[in-house]
Amino acid sequence: MQITKKKLKEEILKVLAEVADDLKKAPDMEGFMNNYKDAIKKNEELDEKIKQTQLISDQFLLRRFTI
Amino acid sequence: MDQIANPDSFFKIFNFENYSEVLKFESLTYDDLTNNSNIKNIYTFLENQNCKEIIIEAHYNDKFYLDDYLHFYGSCFQSYKRFCKRLHFFTASVKNLIIEIIDNYEEDNTEKLNELQNNYLGFLIVRPLNTIIGRTAITFSSANNNIDIGHRSNFAHIFTLKTYNVNLLGIPLVVKSLGFQEQDQTISACATSALWTILEKTNPRFGYYTPTPYEITQKASEFISISRAIPSSGLTGMQVMNSIKKFGLEAEFMSISEENTLGIKIDRNAVLSLCYAYLKGGFPLFLALKINDSDYHATAILGYHLKDVIPPNQDFNTIANRIDCFFVHDDIVGPFTRYYVKDDLSLYLNKEESHHNYVKVDPLYIVIPVYHKVRYPYSKVYSILGKLMRMMNMIDRDKKYSLEWDCYLTTVNQYKKSLISPSFIIDEKLKRDLLFKSFPRFFWKCTLFINKIVAQIELLVDATEGPNSMPFFKMYPINDNIYWQKIKTFINEAENHTLIQYLKSPRLVQFLQDEINKF
After folding, report:
1. Which residues lie below 8 Å from residue B350, measured CB to CB, with a gap of 6+?
2. Which chain A residues are closer than 8 Å to B491 by Cβ?
3. What is the pLDDT of residue A1?
């Protein structure tokens, strides 16, 4: 049940027409300068969470799947 | 053998009575059959796909069961049968069609063969044990769910299937599925069955053979353990990873439970995103679970379903954040079991749908067997994608559109095939440039989508690199350059040291500046 190229193009053009004005706006340089330090904190928090996903105690890996 | 010679016993109308009758070996009662979730779920699965007829090969030699027999059942005092049955399922009565094909095989049978193939749903091996469901490959068709090869909402996406070549009375048939079998509780418990399903896909893909359940349990048990290898009382996580490595693959790992990670809350999007990145790349996942707060279970994740609604108030979205259900081979419930994903990442089975008692399962960790050349970890790609999306959100705070990253592991062959596929829309000159450029064998393909459908930027990350390298090697615009121009203006106007401070990588900033000015 694959979408056809023609139909996909139509859908893309429709979405692009809806958001074109937004996309064409100049980037908000001030917005970036005002907020990037807070964003760095969020990035660091995310990195910390990602690090946690790589950790597990050996003891936990020794539990047996018995069902 | 008499049954094969008699066509009337070879063909049966598909209904529960006939289905349970042909599944039965002498040692099983009707109650044994009706209490087995696998049997009921496979029946419902076939019924939903409009199954009409069963063909029975009553004397079938299955290489996977035979290996179990050689290493255990054959040396027992009690007499176990050596042969299995193989059942084939069709969506129409095909008896006359098959007889016509057999009787007139020298004629041009293309149309009849196509008709037979179109009605074929797959096969099931019946083992002569109490745990009867052996190697099973049944197609997952649109009758069960809509399938799509992209990332469209409200569709099932299963990229981990493979093509099985089947020969029935000399007639070649194919079925696209991924092998399922229930544990026999002697050679294999749940972890062996899950790992067998995964290696059935991953091993042949990289030139290795598919090991038997006995070989998986045996290799796993080379990791020191106080319990016996055979009869198996189940594998530990360490043994699972040992087995994967013994078969020539590497094991990637991700912890999911807060219990594993000393209470630190796991990022939901990161977990779903990792699952998505490997599943879309065609790698099934080993999922370790806890059931009823005390029992440990293992299953294989094959695919996912995407909901339509993008979760609100997120400053970093990937398509994976829309996963609301996983399709799982759970060897005590059945093939393609749906695990519904809740906000806290706990998983639920629909009791009526799964015909089984356990409803809630707590995921503990995921193990992904990968080829040894897949080295650059997804977690690092994910971290960079998060930084880039936050940057994009900051320069366009009042936007009315939504952004999502679609990131998955791909190969140069898959990527170039997708470039020339009719559904891919890209500038012709850029397409030719990309086709003629040499790429690493494995890379992470990251596409930025606007409002779920309009791809705008593609970023390629070399997956064969080491974790401390600079693996980003290509970035280009897709569909049109409007959004690209906005990012370009920002990258060129922003102060260099601020970008470096934000992205924490001078090499990445240099890469962005170089690539963005090429278009």
Report:
1. B338, B340
2. none
3. 46
Record: contact B394-A26, CB cut-off 8 A? no
CA-nearest residue of chain B to A4?
B423
CB contact under 8 A, B148 and A61: no
Which of chain B's residues have a Cβ under 8 Å away from the Cβ of A19?
A: 399-401, 450-451
Domains contained in chain B, CATH given? 2-150+158-177 (no CATH), 190-370 (3.90.70.10), 378-516 (no CATH)
- For residues B119 and B51, give the distance between their C-alpha atoms in angstroms, rounded to a whole number: 9
**pLDDT, tens digit, for every residue of B390-437?**
999 999 878 889 999 999 999 999 999 989 876 667 788 999 999 999
Query: What tokens appear for B150 in the block?
Result: 């992209």
Per DSSP, helices labelled H in B336-425 are 351-354, 378-394, 412-420
The token pair that represents B241 in the structure block: 């990873």
Q: Mean pLDDT, 10 residues at a time, over chain A (67 residues)? A: 68 87 91 94 91 78 85
DSSP B471: -
Contacts of B296 in chain A (CB under 8 A): 63-67
C-alpha B62/C-alpha B77 separation (Å) is 22
> Which residues contact residue B517 at a Cβ distance below 8 angstroms, ignoring those fewer than 6 apart?
B488, B492
CB-neighbour burial class of residue B495 (10 A; exposed 0-12, middle 13-18, buried 19+) = exposed
Q: Over 70: is that where the pLDDT of B5 sits? A: no
Q: Look at phi and psi of residue B336 and say left if phi exceeds 0, alpha if psi is from -120 to 50, else beta.
A: left
Q: How far, in Å, CA of B244 to CA of A17, rounded?
A: 50
